[in-house]
Structures are given as structure tokens and as C-alpha cells.
């Protein structure tokens, strides 16, 4: 029920601006249903009139006065109803299809925009696949439901009520007879739906597991081939496949069974109506023409009465999926966004420097990663951060850019807490080259200009030259216009890193953070980049994380981090002389003649 | 189509029953208006007996139809699920016979879609075919004939209605198909944009590109909404229009019956059934049309799956090659290699011999071809020209099992599979014992953190190995490489995320524990290959220097240059 309320709230948020159109659709749908119900009445009337006419015509006594006019009147009325029903249906479906396409578009953009504003923590703690399924599956389910189910639900409900109302208007006894089998139908439908739901859930679970397996295996195919694991992989696939087969089979049987079941019931009901109808005609002493007309009418009603029951049960699954989807989307909308202080300070240029003061931080509340870290970077300085894997280097970078906020202590730019800065101005002046390089679908040029789409081609080429990737790019047949995406392999691992460096150089940040930006780049290229970067870095404040100590020898200060604590700090010479942890790292790695 | 036929073969019996049931069902629903007509007649004639027998017949018909419907569903589900599962299994087997080059050509993501979405489409197509599509022609033809029999006088109304609906539906469905194709493309694009913004969320945020990304996405999404609206409009026009056609047909029938009722009084009882048949014809055409649009999507999927089945693996192993114990020798004879689709060779004319037990270092600039060279040894690709020999046997004639036993390749980008740590290590040696695990973890310096877990080697690896740091992933991946004590071990920049101390320990352990193993170590850091027996220097795909460290310093300017960049700072030594 809670889920249902959240789902309704979500729908309300997106549908309220269409209240006028929606209200109109409801009214027109009810009208359309009314005409649809009314038409058979006139048809029955027409036939009754016709058979009365025939009777009078055959009877010599009334032969002369027999008139077809009532028949034609009924026929006219029927055609008017038919015409109006088609016209109103057109109007309601025209408006509603527009509303559903627009709303689902707005929901899609709303979700994307919301994701853009959310915290990194959310993305670190939720699987991409699960978030993506909001787009691929949940939004899709909602669209389908709005397109097919909700308005159908409306018109079927109207039809249902309309038919009952009309039936009682015509003949109370026959109306009760027509409705007698309803509880049985609902009971059967309920049972089948519950079974189907159970199995469809199982099916979705099994399908998810199987897709996960396929995805992982095929993406890790290099391992499978080099380790000769193909047969094992095929054997591993079999149980997933079998499970999906079993679960889907059951789900499909149950949900597929609903329709013939309801149709069969509807036919049975029809037979009952005919029996009682003709029995009634004979025993209630109705005149034949009226009786015949009545049966014709109720034969129609009986079919129309069952139609909503059949339809509603078959759209039930669709509605259920949409409600689940809306609930999930609503959960995402309630996730915290990145906090941007109102009237935050604008960071224009760095005046004095960057400072970490007694910083405590943990990704989970019960597991602290940084235990009171103090680091001071003066304006124009290059500070290097070294330390074993998992010591918290990337974590510190996460704090500088406000991907995460400290639990205690503070990170300050020019003495102002980062939490007091306007987020955009902060990030405009902090440039990061991340540990993992990412490419976006588009051209090489698009990727380099990612942070500054308006940059000129000259600036872009200059950045690529500084990152030492220009020569390689122009050697490609299409140069900067070469299409790439994250999976594409035109670039070797190191070349991808060079591209990310070019991307950051182009934005010309005041404060630069390099997180193992060249870990897969050869040292000659790296040295060349460094020479180029020396120009870039000159006068710029920077923070460099590297396992390759050679890259940081020129740093003004080296900070050694271990288990979330600063254990050594100083210039290279001083640290080597200290013969501590850093000196050991250094001697392990360097070559001496 | 051929593929579908082949996969349908084992289910011939079930398909037969399912179609039989559909025919019964269709027959039952066709017969129903006729019975109704007889009931009406009986009522008019005041024939109680007739009403009773016909009513009972109607009930029997309902029960038969219901049972047939359920039977059809069961068999249809069985067939469609069977075919889908077989299709998946066979396609998966086919993919597993692919070379890495084959997979790259399709791209992994694309193959996953073919395994999941496309098979799903086909499963739905089969289900729909068995449930509805066979019923539609039967219903259509049956209703058509019965309508003509019921009121032969009005034959032209039936024909006219059919022609009108078919003609206008032709026009609409053609339009519809075009828009559906557009929709599919737009949906793919939207999903790609969403996926990339998730993967690159840190980049997007640190470059303040949220708004640009949203704008890009909105443009795409608006286009999608626009096409969706157009399709919606088409549907909202089409259905009332068709209904109007059938309404006019109904009205005309009633009018003509009324007009000639004196000459043909029997028509009066027939008109209701006639109208039922008209409606059935109408629904048959409608459903048939919609099904065919959905079916066309299924056929696109079928074509994509066919492409997988028709691809011949470009690396195959001779089945008659005897399984032998290969030595650790590696020989390249004038090997050149060009990536498929590329024009420039990634490796050019490379020849060398490596003796069992040797340690070889490979250095060279980014993109010089180090990874490419290494990939030829486990035969991820075949050289374009020249030969690669392992243990003296040409890879083109080697027994696959023997090659896998001999060579272990640790990738530049560590990949772990979700499951336990032990499952991942077992990939290197299927019958590994806990002692083997411990030894491998000790060598790779992974024991240090694995032993800290309460559940040790049973500790779970999450999807995308999110619960391990870069260095931890690399160490586990090295452990997987060494657990089987291979004859040849290739490490492709496998210690780049390790701190200097751990790296040094890995090197020492490898020297001690795998003394007899040929070790080929690709590295950016000279210190990683300093003590190698020989070092290969690659430059733009060519082997430009071979020799031990001191020799290369003297002879290879490129090596010298690399070395210079890494030499310890002047004053410290
Ligand atoms: N998103 C996260 N959620 C939970 N724990 C995390 C997350 N990211 C990192 N950690 C943990 O925090 C600790 C510090 O990780 P961090 O990435 O800062 O290390 P690092 O020093 O950058 O290591 P590396 O040299 O491998 O890059 C590690 O123990 C890691 O497992
Ligand atoms: N799958 C591929 N398809 C096409 N070209 C490729 C492919 N993989 C690599 N290349 C190209 O082949 C050349 C050699 O790449 P390779 O990956 O062997 O370099 P590498 O020496 O391992 O570089 P790194 O040190 O960056 O890992 C590069 O120019 C690269 O662009
Ligand atoms: Mg890190
Ligand atoms: Mg490489």
C-alpha cells in the first residue's frame, strides 16, 4: 500500500500539469463508452421493430398499417451512436497518446537530470546495471501502462458500470442472471494472477542472474580463452538457462491461460443467458417480438459484460509493473542531491593555497579510512602523495573535489571550507585526471573538448600536443574526427590515459590533481608530458598521486600516506635522508648504476 | 528462418498439438454465432426442445474452446521456451568457439544483446505465432465463408469491408514500421547516453558537464517523445477509422435486411450472427496487422542471431593434434600482425627465440605493440604472416589443451569474475587445493589481505570487483596466473598499480617459486625487468633491441632513453 501511495505520488508529480487534458479524456472516454453501450440497444430495437413489422405485414388484418418507420428510426439512432463512439474514441485516444508520450519523455529527462545532481556516493553504492534498468525497463513499463492500460482501465470500468446500469434498465431478472457467474470468474482470475505474478517475479530474477552471467563471461572472454575455460563456461551457463526456461514457462502458462479461461467463461455465461432468456420468454408470457429483441440485447450485454473482466485481468500485470516502476523512480527522486550552498563563495583564483585540517573520513560510518589527515599545499606548489595501495590517496582526491564530504575536520581553499563554495565554481577551478580513463561516444575531438565544448581547434591541438597524443591522433585515417566509444580499442591502455590528460589540460584549471594519470604510460612519453606539464604546472597548484616515484621527484613536498595517516612529509632529499618508509619505497624502485 | 526451423525440429510434436488446439479453438469460436442463430430460430419457432439442445451444444462448445485454449497455451509456452533455451545454449556454445578477434568484431556488449534481447524477441515471436498467428487466418477465412453462408445476399458488404480495411491498414502499417525502426534506434541511443553518463559520472562532475549532458540527453529524449507521439496519433486515427468502416458495414447490413425483409423473412434470425462474423473478420485483420508489425521486429533479431551462427571462428585447433607436455620454449619466426580493419601493422617482422626457464622483459613506448606481441603467444590472435611456436610446436598445429596447460597470461587490465576468490583462482587450475591457493597468494603478495578476511579464500568478489582496490585486483589476477605453475608466464604491465615494495616482493617470489618457468614480463619500469636474462625493446611494432640490461644500455638508444627517464636523481647514489 505504501508502494502504491509512492507510485501515485510520482504519477501526480508528472501528470498534474495535464489535469485539463486528462479531465477531458476522462469525460470523453465515458461518453465514448456510453455510445458504445447504447448502440447495441438500438440494434436490438431495430430488429424488434423489424420483426414486429414483419408480423404485422404477414397478418392480413394489420397488413395495410404495417410501417417500417420505427425500424428506420432505430437504425438511425444506432448509426449516430456508432459514429459518435468512433469520434469520441478518436479524440480521447489522440489526447491521451500525446500526454503519455510527453509525460514519459519528461519522466526520462527528469530521471536523467536527477541522476546528474546526485552524490557520487549513490553511484558508488549502486550497480550501473540496476540504475540503467530504470531507463530500460521501469520507464518503459510506465509508458506501456499509460499508453495501453490506464486509459483502457478507465474505459473498461466505465463500460462495466454502463453495461450493468443498462442491463438493469432493460430487465432485472435477466440482468441478475447475466451477473451470476461473476464471483466465480473473479475467484479464478485472482488465483491465476497470483500464480502468474509469483512466476513472473521468479522469471525476472532468473533472467537477471542469467544476463549477469552472460555479461560477465563475454566481457571477460580474454581470460576464458587464455585459460581454456570455454567448456567450463558453457557448463556454467546451462543451469542459468534451464532455470530461466522453467520459470518463464510457468509464468507464461499462467498469464497465457487467463485469456482463454475468461473467454470460455464468457461463452458459458452466454449459454446461461440464452437458456434463461428463452425460458423467461416462454414462461413470463412475453410477446415473441419483445422476447426475441430482449434476448438479442442480452446476448450482446453478456459479451460486453465479460469484456471488461477479461481485459482488466489481462492488463493487471501491466499496471502492477508500472506501479513497481513508479515506486522505484520515486525512490530515486527522494535521494539526496549534492548540496550547493546558497550564495556560495565564488572561487576565482587560488590566493593562498589548499589545506586539509584534521580530516576524518569513512565511506561507511563504521569504517574510518582517513584518521586525522593534515596536508598543506601552498599556492604554486606541487605536492605529491605516495603510499601503498588502499592507503587512502584517491579518497583524499574525492574530498578535494567534494565528491564526498569529510566526517570531521575540514578541507579549505584559501582558508574557506569547500562546503561554503559554489559547487560549480569549485569544480571549474579544480581539474582532475582520474585513475581510470573514460571515453564517451563521439569523436576524438568531442572527447578532448569534453570539459570545454566551445574550445577552438587550435587550443585542442595544443592540449593534445602537450599530452603527447597529437602525433598518434593525426596518424589515424580520420584524425580528430575518428569515432570512438569506451569499448573501442583504437587506443592502447596508455594512449587512453594520454587522452584524459589532454582533456584536463584544455580546461586550464587553477588547481590540478593527477591520480596515477600516467600509470600505464611509458616513462619516455611520461617524461615528455612532464616537460610539457612543467609549463602547465608552473604557477599552478597541483596535487600528484603516483606509484612511480620518478614522476614526483621534482615535487615541492612529498606526503607519505599509510593506513589513512600521514607518516612522513618533506622534500625528496629530506625523506631519503630520513631512511624511513619513503626511502625504502624509493630504493626498491629506482635503478642505480 | 533456417535457424528457426532447425531449432523447432525437436518440438514438432508439441507444435502439432499446439496448432491442433488453436484450430479447435478457432473452430469453436466460429461455430458459436451459428449456434446462436439456431437458438434464435428455435426461440422464434417456440421450439423448447431445440433451444435446449442448442444451448447444451453452446455450453459444450465453450468447454471445448476453454480446454483447447489452455492446452494451446501450455504447448505454445513449452515450444517457445524450448526453442529459446536451445537457441541460447547453441549460440553461447558458438560464441565460446570464437576467437578473441571474432568477439572484438561483434563487440562484447553487442553479443550480450544478441544472447538476451534478441533471443527474447524470438521467443515472443514463437509464442505469438503459436497462440494467435495460426488462429488469425483460420478465423478470417472461416468467418468470411460463414458470413457468406449466413447471409449470401449481402456478400458484397463483406468483400467491400475487407478490401477497405486491408487497403487502409496497408498504408498505416507501412508508416508504422518505419517509425518503429526509428524508435528502436532512438531507444538504443538514449540508453547509451544514460550508460555512459553513469560510467563517467566522476568525469562529468569534475568537468561541470552535468548541464551539457542533460541537454544532450534531453534532445535525444525529446526526439523519442516526438516519434512516440506520432505513433500514438497513428494508432488513435487508425483504430477509430477501422471501427467506423466496420460500423458502416453493420449499419448497411441491417438496412438491407430491413429493406428486403418481406421477401427474405429468414434474414431476421440471421442478421445477429452475420454481424458477429463481420466483427470477427474485422478483429482478425486488426490483430493480424499488429502481429505482423511485431513479427517484423522478431525477424530483425533472427537475422542478428543468424550472423552469429554463420561466423566461422578464425582461430581453430586441429582436432587430431596429440596432447603433449610442452616445454617453455617460445619462438617467433618473421611474425607480422595487423589488427583487422587496420592498415598499419601493429607488429612487423619479429623473430626471436626464448629458451625454457628464461626471464624476458619487454619494454617500449605506449602503443609500441607490447600487448599485441604477448597476445600472440596464448593465441588470442593468429599472426598475419609468420609463425609462432610454443614448446617447438607451431601454434597452428598445436593441441589446445596442451597450450592452455603451458601458458598463463596475466592481463594489463585485471578482470575478476563474481563469485568467491577461490573460484577465480581455480580458473588457473581446476583441481587446485587450499595449499595451492595459499602458495599462489603468497607469490602474488595477495595473502597479506586475503588472510585478513574471516572467510579467507571464500571471500566474495562482487560484480565489477567493486570491493577490491586496483592493487588488490592485480594481485589476485597474478595469483590466478601462477596457481597452475605454468611453463610460460606472461605478465602484461601487471604490477602497475602495486606500490614499489609489494612489486619487489612479487618479483622475488616469482624467481624463487617459479624458477623453471619461462617468464615474459612487460613493464614500463626498468626496475621491473632489470634482472631479466634478456630485454626486448619494441618501437612502433619492431623489435629494435635484444639483450641484457647492461648490453642494451650500450647498444640501444631507445632503451637508453627509457632508462634515462628513470635513473635515480643525481645526488642520491
Ligand atoms: N567507494 C568506496 N566505498 C567503500 N570503500 C571504498 C570506496 N573506495 C575506496 N574504498 C576503500 O577505502 C580505502 C582507501 O581507498 P583509496 O582508493 O583511497 O586507496 P588508494 O590509496 O587510492 O589506493 P590505490 O593505490 O589502489 O589507488 C580502501 O581500503 C578501499 O577499499
Ligand atoms: N584491438 C585493436 N584493434 C585495433 N588496433 C589496436 C587494437 N589494440 C591495439 N591497437 C593498436 O595497436 C598498437 C599497439 O597496441 P598495444 O596495445 O600492443 O600497445 P602497448 O605497447 O601494449 O601499449 P600500452 O603500453 O599503452 O599498453 C597501438 O597503436 C594501438 O592503437
Ligand atoms: Mg587510488
Ligand atoms: Mg598494453
Detailed description of the structure:
The complex is a heterodimer of chains A (about 600) and B (about 575). Chain A is an alpha/beta fold and about 600 residues long. Chain A contains 19 helices and twelve strands. Chain A has two domains: about 1-335, ABC transporter type 1, transmembrane domain (ABC transporter transmembrane region fold, Up-down Bundle); about 355-590, Rossmann fold (3-Layer(aba) Sandwich), CATH 3.40.50.300. Chain B has about 575 residues and is an alpha/beta fold. Chain B has two domains: about 1-310, ABC transporter type 1, transmembrane domain (ABC transporter transmembrane region fold), CATH 1.20.1560; about 330-565, Rossmann fold (3-Layer(aba) Sandwich). In chain B, the strands form three sheets. Chain B has a six-stranded mixed beta sheet with strand order 6-9-10-3-11-12, with helices on both faces. Chain B has a four-stranded antiparallel beta sheet with strand order 2-1-4-5, covered by helices on one side. Chain B has a two-stranded antiparallel ribbon with strand order 7-8. Chain B is elongated, with a radius of gyration of 36 Å. The model of chain B has no long low-confidence stretch (mean pLDDT about 85). Chains A and B meet through helix 2, helix 3, helix 4, helix 5 and helix 7 of A and helix 2, helix 3, helix 4, helix 5 and helix 7 of B. The structure holds adenosine-5'-triphosphate (2 copies) and magnesium ion (MG) (2 copies). One adenosine-5'-triphosphate sits at the interface of chains A and B. Chain B: It comes from Leuconostoc holzapfelii. Chain B: It is a multi-pass membrane protein. Chain B: This is ABC transporter ATP-binding protein. Chain B: Keywords: ATP-binding, Cell membrane, Membrane, Nucleotide-binding, Transmembrane, Transmembrane helix, Transport.
